[in-house]
Design a protein that fits this description.
The chain is mainly alpha-helical and 242 residues long. It has 13 helices and no strands.
């Protein structure tokens, strides 16, 4: 299917600018975390260029700081970023049947939560060039923010760096607190996860495992338990129940 390349690219870049501005702030705090984990500006930028997820990147940086193995980091990234498999499947339905394999792979590379949202909102088939414009701008902001975080962290005094490091935790609190206030089950799950993390670090056998393995086990066990106890109902099931 033929799409107007310049128009689609320009529209994607326009819609990607607000995302890029938000990514700059979040990636800056990740850059501080990368600096604390021992990465330089190039390494932090490369990490963000290849990993467009704040939770996934923070998990990876945490494992790097804990001297985890490559295998532990790889497993953790697969677990934390598994939701993008579902997003990719959903987004593939927006692509024209004749969209090439290369286009599909490149669109998958630039897929983030925000890019997925604006892509699904497009009418009709999704133009690959729209996706390139949107995530091209967004990824540039994400990558530059991480490098800037490391560079600024190297210039500022340690006290200022420690203060900026708290910003990342504030970001995650801003993500989990609003839905936790509306959902008691989610609130309880957060409390259980904190308690389980403390137990894993204190119990004799579990405390002997590396921090990376403990994080992976907690992520898999808690998410699987939550899915079994409180599965998410889709719209069809809600209509049948009504």
């Amino acid at each position: 299917m033929n799409f107007p390349i310049k128009t689609s690219l320009r529209r994607g870049m326009r819609d990607g600018i607000p995302i890029m501005l938000g990514y700059l702030a979040v990636a800056f705090t990740l850059g501080i975390a990368a600096r604390n984990a021992g990465l330089n500006a190039f390494q932090a930028a490369l990490t963000s260029f290849t990993n467009h997820a704040s939770a996934g990147e923070y998990a990876g940086l945490t494992l790097i700081a804990a001297k985890a193995t490559y295998l532990e980091v790889a497993i953790m990234e697969v677990v934390v970023n598994a939701r993008y498999l579902l997003m990719s499947c959903a987004l593939s339905q927006k692509l024209a049947p004749d969209t090439s394999f290369l286009h599909r792979m490149l669109i998958g590379y630039g897929l983030t939560d925000e890019v997925f949202g604006i892509s699904m909102a497009q009418e009709g088939y999704l133009s690959p060039w729209y996706s390139y414009g949107a995530f091209g701008v967004a990824v540039a902001g994400w990558t530059a923010g991480s490098a800037l975080g490391v560079l600024v962290g190297n210039i500022l005094p340690d006290r200022a760096v420690y203060a900026l490091s708290v910003g990342l935790y504030g970001m995650f609190l801003a993500i989990i607190v609003p839905p936790a206030r509306k959902n008691r089950f989610l609130c309880g799950l957060i409390v259980v996860s904190m308690a389980a993390s403390a137990l894993f670090a204190a119990l004799p056998l579990l405390s002997e495992l590396s921090e990376g393995i403990r994080i992976i086990l907690l992520t898999v066990l808690l998410s699987a338990g939550a899915a079994l106890l409180r599965p998410v109902r889709d719209e069809a099931e809600d209509k049948e129940g009504a």
